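Ticket #4471: structure output looks truncated?

Reporter: J.K.
Steps to reproduce: submitted the chain below (278 residues) through the standard prediction queue, then opened the result file.
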Amino acid sequence: MWRISLALIIGGIAALVFGGHKLMVAMRNSSPVQMKYADWRKAPPDSEWLELSDVHIDWSASARIDTQHTRKGVVTSTDHDYYVACWASDDDPEPVCAFLHVDDADKQQLMEQCWDHDGDDAWLTANIDRVYEVKTVRGLVQTGLDLSSEDQKLLRDMGHVQNDFRIIELNKEPEGGFGAILIVVGILCVLGGGATFFVGRKKPGKPHYPPTGYTNAPPPGHGHMPPPGAMPPAAPNAMQAGPARMPGQRPAPRPPQPGPGPAGPRPVRPPQPRPPQV
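Returned output as attached by the reporter:
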């Protein structure tokens, strides 16, 4: 019982934390901030929901981070996260200050092709319009619980990247409604876990022990028959119990009991003569 209670409480706390984070992000970002990427890089506002224009993207300047999930030493699944760098111009000399987290399957396939043709100038010239783009991007900056410190370290190790770079979730918006649902679920889980814990700890009623000297035989007058052999056999001359008699009522005459002689009333003895007096 306590395991179920602990699981509910832990799950409820996790739901409250994640739901609170998402709800706070939604409350701070009622609408996206619209500005040029070059201006945003110079003075980024205190906002996570962005719509940046004039973003120069080189799909060959990208990376893929693979995360393996194992169970008992065996790889069960692998997640692939794709990132591409953002530039302010074609010849931007500044270090990368923002990466886009891309979940579009076509763009991910384009990244794979760029890596396969690395150093192939002929392929690059033939696909220049696909590899280099200037576009407006819209997304949500990763903050707090959405950030992965391991992914940040791997992207920073690529070189020519600012230490305080940002990761923008492409085409993602605040999820205030989902955060509110998580908060409600978290509260219910915590309350349910607490109730389960206290109900499971409720002690049973205290047993009533018999007084000292009490035998296994039930007390008289409770309508319980004694077990066989618990009472001594009745005496041979003991009278059988008759019907109950009310106070003041005369007993009913008993029928004649059979004796050693013939059945019926006993004969009347005649009077005997008294001896003479001296």
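Triage note (M.O.): checked the attachment and the full token line is present. Residues 260-269 have pLDDT under 50 and may be disordered.
Status: closed, working as intended.
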